Amino acid sequence: MTKSILPLVKKTDVVLMGAGIMSATLGMILKELNPDITIQVFERMDEAGTESSDAWNNAGTGHAAFCELNYTPEKNGAVSIDKAVKISEQFEISREFWAYLVEKKYIPNPAEFISAVPHMSFVWGDTNVDFLKARHKAMNESPMFKDMKWSENRDEISQWAPIVMRGRDNKQPIAATRMDMGTDVDFGALTRKLFAKLKTMPGVTIHYNVESLDLDPDGNGGWDVFVRNLLNEEKGQVNTRFVFIGAGGATLHLLKRAEIKERKGYGGFPVSGLWLKCLNEDLIKDHQAKVYGKATVGAPPMSVPHIDTRLIDGKKELLFGPFAGFSTKFLKNGSLLDLPTSIRPDNALPMIFAGLKNFKLTKYLIDQLRLTPIDRVNELKQYVPSAQLLDWELKEAGQRVQVIKKDKKEGGILEFGTEVVVSEDGTVAALLGASPGASTAAAIMLGLLAKCFKKEAASEAWKNKIKEMAPSFGESLSTNEKLVQQTRERTTKLLKL
Ligand SMILES: Cc1cc2nc3c(=O)[nH]c(=O)nc-3n(C[C@H](O)[C@H](O)[C@H](O)COP(=O)(O)OP(=O)(O)OC[C@H]3O[C@@H](n4cnc5c(N)ncnc54)[C@H](O)[C@@H]3O)c2cc1C
């Protein structure tokens, strides 16, 4: 926790707004590519990684798209694995980048942020079993998912996830798939470690308790950034060549302030989350997997329920959820006015159209808000049949702001993915949305370089360094089985998984 007030640096090469996993990753990549680059970070909280990136605020899944069924939609009877393949390739890049940080001893002990936790899909009912079978067949053909195991055998599934099978109706048709090489990631711990390292690097200044308010073009191709110190209410101004808006849910507000044409037509729809946190140490001990089920109709992707082993602050935990909720805040520590004040002439229509088209989501959210503690435990019982209300407590998860954007055909669409908005000249970039989010931070930030640091990114020096940090970046892993094996073996060893 930092309470001291640092003087502002009048001019830096880069300003990072927000100290979440995205800014941390971009800051570290830039500093590795160019050790002379100067960076100034503004974070409104008194510590890094306390919003969506904090371990209790997200599900901690290293999203490699192994078992999250929402990444493999069924279209006309066929299971499409394209999205899963892309996410899986992106996750390998994150693993490579983290392995690089470990190799460089920036994060000497990877166990403090990443652990091996098998991923599973578990379904019940004939239709869902058929879907999972078709999914497994399609996925097994890709080198990314070759090691995926399939089972309809109750004894085997009981070994994989005892608490999921204990007390289950013997006649219920069930099936499961499993990837042993799944991971649980404490993105909050990782974020704080990255900023702790960045702080020691020359030319990096990190301001906590300082809020970014606005950014204006400086007339010379750069930006004047306006900030307020929340400890003494003093306002200040700094100048920079490049701004990254990595303010999580609040990115939309800041993007709207940047005078770039690309900001137009974007809106946001907040969805909050709730976990059931297990208090029973025996149950926690008995479970060692992240088990994903099928989402309810209308549920947003991040609300696909899962019963999850977590490692948070070195302690094993067990969480179920997330249940969805609704709050007009864009950040957990935000304001109830966030949603109403985000509606402007340029995004009002897209937001209305998106609202009208997503009736199922609205109904789903209303149903979720109506849930009583007993209803929630009844949902949990579908995964853990012997669950008892007394063993679980409710815990608030993070706030996600889903992207709404203008669409020529539909008027407005609601998206559940991550979207990077970059100004035409590449001097401003903003990250909207949050899925698959933190897991793909390294790939997203490396992808941003070609747009925002065009000249440097084309140089041999940067290309070589990028290869060193993330050897698979720019490669098609999914068509190269040998490369998949090689990179996984290497990162498994370095990350001590
Ligand atoms: C319920 C839930 C489950 C999720 N599960 C997963 C998962 O299993 N795996 C996964 O990979 N991802 C998951 N995600 C997504 C993941 O958490 C996000 O993609 C990721 O944390 C976003 O990082 P960020 O840096 O963009 O934002 P954040 O971590 O939210 O950081 C933004 C920072 O900006 C600061 N800030 C905001 N406004 C200002 C301002 N004006 N001035 C200065 N600072 C400001 C905030 O205080 C915050 O520290 C989940 C998210 C949620 C909500």
Percent helix among the residues?
A: 25-40%
Tertiary shape: globular
Termini separation comes to 30 Å
Structural class: alpha+beta
Cross-sheet strand order for the largest sheet: 7-8-6-15-16-17-14-18-19
Which ligands accompany this protein? flavin-adenine dinucleotide
Q: Flag low-confidence runs.
A: none
What does this structure look like?
The chain is of the alpha+beta class. The chain is 33% helix and 26% strand. It contains 16 helices and 21 strands. It has helices at residues 21-33, 82-103, 126-140, 154-160, 162-165, 187-199, 251-257, 281-286, 338-342, 348-357, 359-369, 373-381, 441-452, 454-457, 460-469, 481-494, and strands at 11-17, 39-42, 74-75, 78-79, 114-116, 119-124, 149-151, 174-179, 183-185, 204-207, 210-217, 223-229, 235-245, 267-278, 290-292, 306-312, 315-325, 392-407, 411-415, 418-422, 428-433. The strands form four sheets. The protein has a nine-stranded mixed sheet with strand order 7-8-6-15-16-17-14-18-19, with helices on both faces. Strands 1, 2, 10, 11, 12, 13, 20 and 21 form an eight-stranded mixed sheet that branches. Strands 3-4 form a two-stranded antiparallel sheet. Strand 11 (210-217) and strand 12 (223-229) form a beta hairpin. Helix 2 (82-103) packs across helix 13 (441-452). It is globular and about 70 Å long. 51% of the residues are buried. Bound molecules: flavin-adenine dinucleotide. Flavin-adenine dinucleotide is lined by residues 17-23, 42-45, 50-53, 57-61, 63, 187, 211-212, 246-248, 250, 254, 273, 302, 322, 331, 397-398, 400, 431, 434, 436-439.
